[in-house]
Amino acid sequence: MNKKILVTGGLGFIGSHTVVALQERGFEVVIIDNLSNSSLDVLGGITKITKISPEYENIDLREKAAVKGFFEKYPDIEGVIHFAASKAVGESVENPLLYYENNLNSLIYLLKQLKQKEAPKFIFSSSCTVYGQADELPISEEAPVKKAESPYGNTKQIGEEIIFDTCKVTPHLNAISLRYFNPIGAHPSAHLGELPIGTPQNLVPFITQTAIGKREKLSVFGDDYPTPDGTCIRDYIHVVDLARAHVVALERLLDEEQDTNYEVFNLGTGKGNSVLEAIKTFEKVSGTKLPYTITGRREGDITAAYADTTKANEILKWKAEFSIDNALESAWKWEQRLQEKEMEETEGM
Predict the structure, then answer these.
(1) End-to-end CA distance of the chain, in Å?
(2) Taking the CA of residue 315 as centre, how many other CA atoms within 13 Å lie in the half-sphere pointing to its CB?
(3) Is residue 303 in some structural domain?
(4) pLDDT tens-digit readout, 112-151
(5) Element holding 236 (H helix, E strand)
(6) Which of 91, 104, 136, 163 is the most exposed place for a label (fewest CB within 10 A)?
(7) Mean pLDDT, the chain, whole residue set
(8) Whole-number Å distance between alpha carbons of 241 and 268
(9) Could you give the CA distance from residue 127 to residue 131 in angstroms, rounded to a whole number?
């Protein structure tokens, strides 16, 4: 029988691509998503790609009784990949209690239920924000975790500490935290992609929405950083590569003996690109000129961050395969498909 895996936030950007990757590897998936930052339409995209419709539960993970009820309904869950979290840095500064309640309570309630299972496996969606502005580049897992720049970043740090402390006293629980760098792109089929509600918080959806005419122009936050072109440098990783890493990490937990029951891995390409390089690459792959203006620096932005991926390459046997060109091309294809869909819906009204 196929192993049953819970994916929380499974209708979100990274979660939905991971559900596809899991189903393509033969796992049976149950999704929890409360649709606070996603759409039920995503379920249709997953089904179109895999020809399998995963089970879906609309549950708010802040409700302790609902989480308990879920595990009673699905006693055969063997592993959890936990994406569900609020993730906008700016919003977290304005509303810290929302972030602490949502991101930490949901994690605690999941772990409380998992502790009661025989051999639970847990993968946590973490972030390179835990490193802040690292002293050395590329950033390895040995780099010190610095004081968080935002409540969002702090929830990732505290989340990792909660898992570490729980694993220390729960030997039968095996967990991995995956620290992502900057996920971008879309599924090559254009049935799944980044679908921000309201104004995008990330660079690439802002680029594609500007290129297609939904936004007047793109703002580049600062060109006076100590980098070759003055703009921030990030490690942009294709979401399909990132999704595949979750499957590989899960299979490690399910199939291999580890020296420790808690591990941490960086997930990136190992290469940094500046904001202006990302814009120029998009213009090249799309054939579209982007209107943009340089504005002041944004609070909380660090100068540069890109991953040392040696540990993930060697231990997980995982490596990012797609380039930034591939990722931006897929993101543009997704944006164009969204526009076609909107036009079809308008004409059908």
Answers:
(1) 45
(2) 19
(3) no
(4) 999 999 999 999 999 999 999 999 999 999 999 999 988 9
(5) strand 236-238
(6) 136
(7) 96
(8) 9
(9) 9
Give the global pTM: 0.97
What would the two tokens of residue 173 be?
A: 């629980």
- Candidate list 56, 131, 152, 262, residue with the active-site label: 152
Overall domain count for the chain: 1
Of the candidates 188, 273, 202, the one whose C-alpha atom is nearest the C-alpha of residue 37 is 202
215 near 162, Cβ under 8 Å? Answer: no
The vertex-311 CA angle with 310 and 317, nearest 5°, equals 90
- Give the pairing of strands 233-234 and 273-274: antiparallel
Question: What letter represents residue 128's amino acid?
Answer: C
Residue 215 in contact with residue 336, Cβ under 8 Å? no
- Report yes or no on 57 lying in a domain: yes
Which residue has tokens 């971008």?
A: 184
Q: Say which CATH number the domain at 30 has.
A: 3.40.50.720
Tell whether the model's pLDDT for residue 84 goes beyond 60.
Answer: yes
Contact of 316 with 245, CB cutoff 8 Å: yes
152 is a catalytic site residue: yes
Domain that holds residue 79: 4-184+238-267
- Are 19 and 54 in contact by the 8 Å Cβ rule? The answer is yes
Which tokens in the block code for residue 267?
């997930």
Token digits of residue 24: 């393509």
Q: What angle do CA 8, 87, 142 make, to 5 degrees?
A: 90
Query: pLDDT-based confidence at 345, cuts 50/70/90?
Result: confident
Amino acid letter, residue 26: G
- Measure the CA–CA gap between 339 and 342, rounded to whole angstroms: 5
Local structure of 219: helix, strand or coil = strand
Q: Hey, what are 297's tokens?
A: 């620096």
Q: Which two tokens stand for residue 270?
A: 């190992």
